[in-house]
Specification:
Helix content is 28%, strand content 17%. The chain is of the alpha/beta class. The protein has a 5-stranded mixed β-sheet with strand order 2-1-3-4-5, sandwiched between helices.
Amino acid sequence: MAESSYDLAESAKSYMRLAIKLAKQSPPKPTNFCVGAILVDEVENKVLSTGFTLELPGNTHAEQCCLHKFAAEHGKPEEDIADLLPRGTVIYTTMEPCGKRLSGNLPCIDRILSTRNGINGGIRTVYHGVSEPETFIGQNTGRARLEAAGIQCVHVSGFEPEILEVATAGHPRKEDA
């Protein structure tokens, strides 16, 4: 295994802090979670793309925006992203990627899984700050699907209260009821 030139745990915390800043840019709505995502070349410790919920037109999720913007930067549609990703690509997201979309859009899990067909193996690790609350779709089974496909899922702990506060901005609060 290659030696890493940086502290992975410290790097994960730094990227999660950046993802939280991105999530704060999401317009608060009662029908979405405000999420931030960062696509990273872990070998070079370099940000490839960023995204947040509703950054792009339509009912877009953070991971979707992140992947779409990376593909667009290379003049390709998102469906062709697999061969563009460098070896060692990972994604940081404040909330585990969705496994089901009520809007009919492709779930973020499927977007991540489709990158595995690339020449460099696609996204190999998903770093997330919290599990998806059961608010909209019930239990998210996406993590199991990612792990079954050989994608490592890593919980970056220590940010849960802040992430959930940001994620649920715009949602009715118990004291509001």
